[in-house]
């Protein structure tokens, strides 16, 4: 069930030529604030602005020559659509992207800029799946799932593998939990490369399906998707959940205002742009910081794609 | 008139233990957009968030033991007040900061956090100077000017010295022009370390005193201070102007909307937080980019202190 260390190492070799080796930032001030030693793996500086590039590259590189010839297809309105578009272009593969008609025009423009071939459909899951199936039938393209795919998970794991190459003996690594692809990859890397390191997920209370799933032992679903962390509204899948169940130590849930406060803290103190989903593990650490005093902690900063015309700080200010 | 290479090297040794060696970032996308090879020296990641830390450290380190004992004083509502407060604290020196009563409370709080001893006065220059003089009379503290001081200029020069150590044979270095302390230091470093490199200043049209001064050969003043680049509203001084006149190749002026567009570009593409003044040299380069095709260009990103509750992007959006 758990991919081997050899498979992880193969993924690292496979993605290396096509991704940035992102920097690891530290901050004396944030260390003081947390009472711990923090190492921020900056996937917000990754190509197309998020860790998703890694999974997309690994999944496409894993295809046969014939499959590559036929292209890949995914339905997404977020970072994975951009990641598949750019990864496919850089690997000389066609990318068909199914996007709901109400997707923001900036996101459609980004996919188009990266060379993705867009099919617009109604904004229901059924319509997206039907549009994807139609493309598969017509072109023979391979469907790529953003988080419930072993090769995507292995690709995501390479961020933590890089972090652990540079910073050994981490006590903990924190990552956000959405569809489960990043936290599963993070836990997989820790399992093979630094088994003493505990992996902790950060998740909004509003969409705490992973927290509940980890406790019940089966995949739970969310009643709502009402969180500012728009990248974390998705559900776990049958491929990543067994890995999470076995290798993730715990999930810490956070309130919406804690996410915004962590977002602002990283912007103001690290002087880097991260997106709300990316602030969730920072918020989780700060919420329970008394438990992590003097520990050596890696934090996967997952991405930095945010619309600067629509930021949460103004609203926060008006509310307070 | 021009400080020697030896003085520059002494400044580098003096500030090194007290400042971050900030990273130099690159971006394939911004290179493509500019048609040039760009090297961003990230002083927004500097301690207290701006290059001003360098000048403050160098000026304070240059004092005699007796002067250090008596402390330092400055009047500023911006980054220099924070820089002097933090530099003085780290060097075991008292910092008296005169701030106008209408200074934003966040700026007062930052100065206080860094250990500065605040005196509030009326918001006229006369009141600030009177309050500073009173402190000097009472304490014997040494007055530090934010930009018109050779040791501040030499401290500022160390940012470019670091950049040139890592990236040789730059064709151009761009820096913003406000009070003149940064551009003078930048030109000084280039003069001694890479004489072929031309230094270009970026300045808002709204406060183009430096542009006009370079053309007239004497210090010109601004009729207004109406620019979003709040760090660049100040005037040149008799210490930095001769250096600028001799060593700066040219000054390129930019419109307000070009500053906001450059700000947004750096935020979205480099995923780092910079302040409006810091975007000015980026805007200057992009405005005249046809002249810089295929060149190797350093850009001093001066600082990242911006109030995230009051960003220009929303307004831009509403106007367009």
Task: Please give a structural write-up.
2 copies of one chain form a homodimer. By secondary structure, chain A is an alpha/beta fold. Chain A is built from 14 helices and 10 strands. The longest helix of chain A is centred in the middle third of the chain and has 17 residues, at 150-166. The termini of chain A are far apart. Chain A binds chain B through residues 23, 44-45, 49, 264, 267-268, 271-274, 304, 308-309, 311, 313-314, 316-317, and chain B through 23, 44-45, 49, 264, 267-268, 271-274, 304, 308-309, 311, 313-314, 316-317.
Q: Can you tell me the residue ranges of chain A where pLDDT is under 50 for at least 5 consecutive residues?
A: 315-320
The proportion of residues in beta strands of chain A is 15-25%
Q: Identify the biggest protein-protein contact and residues per side.
A: A-B, 19 and 19 residues
Radius of gyration of chain A: 19 Å
Net shape of chain A:
globular
Number of helices of chain A: 14
Helical content of chain A (DSSP H or I, runs of 4+): 40-55%
Highest-level CATH class of the largest domain in chain A: Alpha Beta
Q: How many domains comprise the coordinates of chain A?
A: 2
* Strand count of chain A: 10
Q: Main β-sheet of chain A: number of strands, strand sense, barrel status? A: 6 strands, mixed
List SSEs of chain A in N-to-C order. HEHEHHEHEHEHEHEHEHHEHHEH
* Order of strands across the main sheet of chain A: 1-2-10-7-8-9
- Terminal CA distance of chain A: 48 Å
The average pLDDT value of chain A, as a whole number, equals 95
- Known CATH architecture of the largest domain in chain A: 3-Layer(aba) Sandwich
CATH third-tier fold name of the largest domain in chain A: Rossmann fold
